[in-house]
Design goal:
By secondary structure, the protein is of the alpha+beta class. It has six helices and six strands, in the order E-E-H-H-H-H-H-E-E-E-E-H. The chain has a domain of 90 residues.
């Protein structure tokens, strides 16, 4: 299953049916994971990547904080054993894997997107039309797991994910005071 753009650190093989590691980008991903594992927050990682002149996945100069978090938390980079993959894959896909290797998971069929045409008044007595898209998460049992190479050491990935998770759940200052516009 092929998506329009391969995930950062990967490219499609010649046949276009599997992901292979793209070394220059994967080196950046590993650097990002190691910084997170060392306890650096997303803002520090962003600043260091910018200072080093590392372009974003789309070629921009400054990495978005959410892109950094999504990369670290993405199952694509989390190594899984052959046995763990056996729980996710069918027998045909599992037969193509090597028992001693580690694999990441690229999930397909996670979301269902529907689109419909919506009309709105244009202010001049006419109507304008636009597409409205709605995306819903599908039930977990409908997701399709596709194995990919996992070149980053498992200990580094686990530590980075834990640290990013800790950064995300830290209490913010002044939360004991009620703010009307804060939201619930």
């Amino acid at each position: 299953m092929r998506t329009a753009t391969p995930p950062y650190g990967f490219r499609y093989n010649e046949a276009g049916d599997a992901l292979v590691v793209l070394e220059p980008e994967m080196a950046v991903v590993e650097k990002l994971f190691r910084m997170a594992a060392d306890g650096h927050g997303t803002w520090t990682i962003q600043a260091r990547l910018h200072a080093a002149g590392v372009p974003t996945p789309k070629g921009g100069p400054v990495w978005d904080i959410m892109v950094i978090k999504r990369l670290v938390l993405n199952d694509l980079y989390k190594p899984r054993t052959y046995q763990e993959m056996a729980d996710l894959l069918g027998p045909e896909a599992l037969a193509r894997l090597e028992p001693g290797e580690l694999y990441g998971v690229q999930w397909h069929n996670r979301r269902k997107t529907t689109s419909r045409m919506v009309s709105e008044p244009d202010g001049n007595g006419g109507r304008t039309y636009r597409r409205q898209r709605t995306t819903k998460e599908r039930p977990r049992e409908e997701w399709i797991a596709v194995p990919v190479p996992a070149p980053i050491p498992e200990a580094v990935v686990e530590s980075a994910r834990q640290r990013i998770g800790e950064n995300r759940t830290q209490e913010r200052k002044y939360l004991n005071r009620e703010w009307e516009l804060r939201g619930a």
